[in-house]
Amino acid sequence: MEIEIATIGGYEAVGRQMTAVRAGDDVVIFDMGLNLSKVLIHDNVETERMHSLDLIDMGAIPDDRVMSELEGDVKAIVPTHGHLDHIGAISKLAHRYDAPIVATPFTIELVKQQIEGEQKFGVENDLVKMEAGETMRIGDHNELEFVNVTHSIIDAINPVLHTPEGAIVYGLDKRMDHTPVIGDPIDMERFREIGREGEGVLCYIEDCTNAGKKGRTPSESVARRHLKDVMYSVEDYDGGIVATTFSSHIARVKSLVEFAEDIGRQPVLLGRSMEKYSGTAERLDFVEFPDDLGMYGHRKSVDRTFKRIMNEGKENFLPIVTGHQGEPRAMLTRMGRGETPYELDNGDKVIFSARVIPEPTNEGQRYQSEKLLSMQGARIYDDIHVSGHLNREGHYQMLDALQPQNIVPAHQDLSGFSSYVSLAEDEGYKAGRDLHISRNGQMIQLVE
Ligand SMILES: [Zn+2]
Hints:
alpha/beta; cytoplasm; 22% strand; 14 helices; 448 residues; single chain; 6-stranded parallel sheet; binds zinc ion
């Protein structure tokens, strides 16, 4: 059976991930993401109003024109998890394919909300829920399986396409977490089985982020302990404490909510995306929040809540807000600019349970936001975080478990690939032979 891989997006930068695998007559698309930095750099771009081709030219969504070179029918579109660089282009591109979108329940719900928010593109693909550990037939000869992985968002999986020539493992976005705060540990046992059963692993497509970092990525429970220590250390402070984190990082939001209560403060979630992700996770029973946990997204209700906090005393509350990257319209940035009714005093604490995404726009915006907060007297606690991606030893362990015949590095630019390439070459692979370095819009023929 012919096996071909189209590396469509995310092979020249992080963002707008999209990869297609053809096994005989069947094609499966993995991820269909957005490159948010290409959108945000322009001041007033409303992506919902733009044509897909203009968004492709902007570099915001994957250039899927190469799909016409793949001779087969798309049988499924499979987003691995709910981050926007993996699902953000579904609402703009999926209607071009007559295939269902297959994902885990939390991811499907986020996809559904996104499609509803951007109906202009007319995406009407079926939405099919599939849990980690389950499988689905793809055509007459292939099978799709979801393997549970751990990442900085709940309900993440690595999809595996089982073909008569061996398994294709799409390894994007995971950390090897054996003590996660929500959900099951990564299913390494299944990865080891897949590496040894049948024809083994024909190809492993891997997220190279952090391949240059030594050692092992710590578990989410380490970030949780760090956060607990920081929050308990300010228990006796009788002024304002504000926290921010990735709104899609439900495990972290859960920890913040719990420790706020431990130190005698009422947590409250503020900002549109805080309300969206936490509300969705709670509705789908991934997390149980206290009954009286307030979640407010709209500007008016947020400002009303800030007024209430100022009236009842800042020392009684812990607002958990958007703005960990200094995004200009996010809540914490507005607080820094003095645009909300919440007044910061000398000595108030601002907890960043996040790290700055290393990208010039973020770095500049975050710098500005922190400076504005500091100028009002705020004390900054930053980097209370662990990465959602594998470090070098995690990558080594994955190669050891899967023993792939071919590797395709992904999710980085060329310099980001280099550490992974040297790791793989140390393990006996060779660039140009069985280690395929690819660019956006290229094709790799694995079996002719
Ligand atoms: Zn991710």
